[in-house]
């Protein structure tokens, strides 16, 4: 795997109705680098957001969708999504507050 730093691991948060419902259980959803491991994701969350402690990380690989423009077919890029569960005594992540 390429040299991926902790600030390159988390690309952006996922804001959907389902991910908002999971925030009540201290579960946060992020799009992450496709080659990031669970340990790298855990380390990145704990370093980027002060006072957070990660309990578990669940990941899923998503294939690209088929797209068509006229007679030309193609696929969008593959992505990886991570659901991060924080411990009970951990602080909440501020970027999701007020949504």
UniProtKB/TrEMBL annotation:
Annotated InterPro entries: Nucleotide-bd_a/b_plait_sf, Ribosomal_uL23-like, Ribosomal_uL23/eL15/eS24_sf
Top-level taxon: Bacteria
Keywords: Ribonucleoprotein, Ribosomal protein, RNA-binding, rRNA-binding
Coiled-coil region: none
Keyword Ribonucleoprotein: yes
Transmembrane segments: none
Gene Ontology terms: cellular component: ribosome
Family affiliation: Belongs to the universal ribosomal protein uL23 family.
NCBIfam families listed in its UniProt record: PRK05738.2-4 (NF004363)
PANTHER family: 60S RIBOSOMAL PROTEIN L23A
Subunit structure, interactors included: Part of the 50S ribosomal subunit. Contacts protein L29, and trigger factor when it is bound to the ribosome.
Function: One of the early assembly proteins it binds 23S rRNA. One of the proteins that surrounds the polypeptide exit tunnel on the outside of the ribosome. Forms the main docking site for trigger factor binding to the ribosome.
Name of this protein: Large ribosomal subunit protein uL23
């Amino acid at each position: 795997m390429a040299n991926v730093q902790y600030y390159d691991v988390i690309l952006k948060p996922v804001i959907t109705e389902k991910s908002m419902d999971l925030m009540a259980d201290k579960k946060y959803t992020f799009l992450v680098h496709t080659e990031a491991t669970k340990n790298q994701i855990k380390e990145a969350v704990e370093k980027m957001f002060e006072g957070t402690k990660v309990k578990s990380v669940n990941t899923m690989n998503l294939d690209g969708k088929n797209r068509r423009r006229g007679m030309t077919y193609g696929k969008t890029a593959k992505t990886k999504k991570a659901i991060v569960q924080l411990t009970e005594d951990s602080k909440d992540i501020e970027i999701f507050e007020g949504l």
